[in-house]
Amino acid sequence: MRLRAVFDNEKGISLPLSYSYLLQSAIYDALSNLIPDSHDFGLNVNGRILRPFTFSRLAGQSRQIKEGFISFTPPINLHFSSPLEDFAQAFANGLLKNGGMELKGEKLELKSIEVEPEPPNIGSIDARTISPITIYSTLTTPDGKKKTYFYNPTEKDFTVQLKENLNRKAIALGSPVRAGESFSFKLASRPIQRIVKYKDFVQIAWDFSFKLNTDPELIAIAFDWGLGSKNAQGFGMIEIVERR
Q1: Could you give the domains of the chain?
Q2: Do the beta carbons of residue 168 and residue 47 sit within 8 Å?
Q3: pLDDT tens readout for residues 140-197
Q4: 56: closest CA among 242, 173, 223?
Q5: What element of type H or E holds 66?
Q6: pLDDT digits (tens, 9 = 90+) for 113-138
Q7: CB 232 within 8 A of CB 87
Q8: What is the C-alpha separation between 143 and 145, in angstroms, rounded?
Q9: Dihedral of CA 70/76/79/85: which sign?
């Protein structure tokens, strides 16, 4: 289930360029009205806890970047999505109860919230990121140290990891469908690298347009949950674009 919330603030709002943690905290605050343990809630797949939601970057009528901060002019839009309908409804109800949300001490008043249409039941889409996708592996160096390797979308293993991640999400939701040999991911634009700081961690992520071919149920999961890793930190949300 996917939602679009629109907020207002008379003077606009200014945030650090890496504001995903602030936004995630506001989302958890809204969720906590109906799901008190929302910070800890997740779906377990072979010992991995997957947080079942994602969200977009903020989008204002205009924006300005200056000296490490980004300013938005209202109205300000946020997309939120979860494959669990009750989870998405809890977020909507939290926003309605709170009258909006607070970011860095600034109140964003809720103007409207609506449910967005589900994707068509097809096995092929053209899409683009509305929050960057990150794919990574934790490797062990010869001296025994742990190292995080972030995949570039032009690498073959990016597609392999993307496919495996989507299959884990299907398992978490109890779906028998898996991405098999017919799975296809192709870039439709040059990837733009994003360096995103989340708390004290740095993530390398990418914005791009792409074509995805797989089972319609998996496309619905990608649409509602996002692609790649760290979705609940504001990574991997996509939107479908019309084919020309």
Answers
A1: 2-115 (3.30.70.1890), 124-240 (3.30.70.1900)
A2: no
A3: 888 888 899 999 999 999 999 999 999 999 999 999 999 988 899 999 999 999 999 9
A4: 223
A5: strand 59-66
A6: 999 999 999 999 999 999 999 999 99
A7: no
A8: 6
A9: positive
Question: Which residues, other chains included, contact 147 with Cβ-Cβ below 8 Å and sequence gap of 6+?
Answer: 138, 139, 140, 141
Q: What percentage of the chain exceeds 70 in pLDDT?
A: 99
CA distances for 182 relative to 92, 152, 213, 216, 224, angstroms: 36, 22, 7, 12, 21
Cα distances from 165 to residues 33, 189, 237, in angstroms, run: 30, 22, 14
Structure tokens at 200: 């004290």
| CA-angle at 134, arms to 14 and 13, nearest 5° | 10
Q: Under DSSP, is residue 95 helix (H, G, I), strand (E, B) or coil?
A: helix
What's the CA gap between 208 and 176, in Å, rounded?
29
Helix (H, G, I), strand (E, B), or coil: what is residue 56? coil
CA 187 to chain centre: 19
Burial 23-47 (b: 16+ CB within 10 A, else e): bbebbbebbebbbeebeebebeeee
Q: Tell me the pTM.
A: 0.94
